[in-house]
Task: structure prediction
Amino acid sequence: MNPAQTIAQQFLQQYYQTLMTNKMGLIQFYTDASHMTYGGQQHDGIKQINEKLESLAFQKIVYKIDDMDVQPGALENSLFIFVTGQLQMDDAETYKFSQSFQILPNGQGGLYVHNDIFRLVY
Result:
C-alpha cells in the first residue's frame, strides 16, 4: 500500500467512525473554505455545512466501505478520494452510496475536507 492509500484509509476510518458515533463531530473536518454537495444540493463554508449536518434526521447510521480509489491532488500533500459503499440508517433498508473527497493541507500539519460530494445510488 502506498503512502497516499494509507493516509486515505486513515482519513476514511476517522471520518465514517465520527459520522456513526457523533455526526455533529464531522464539522471538525471542514473549514470556511469547504464545499459539500449532498444529493445534488451544495453547501458552502462551515455555517451551511453545519446546518446540513444538523438536518440529517437519522439517529443511527452504519457505513460499510466496499471500495476506495485515491489519487494525489493538485497541491502538495493533497488527495482526491473516491468511495463506494453501503449505509443503513436507523436499522432500515441498506442503500448504496458514492462519495468523493478532496482533502487539502490545513496549514497546521493536518488535512481538511475542501470538497465533499455525496450521493445515494438507487
Observations:
- The first helix runs from residue 3 to 21.
- The CA atoms of residues 14 and 26 lie 10 Å apart.
- Helices lie at 3-21, 45-55.
- The radius of gyration is 14 Å.
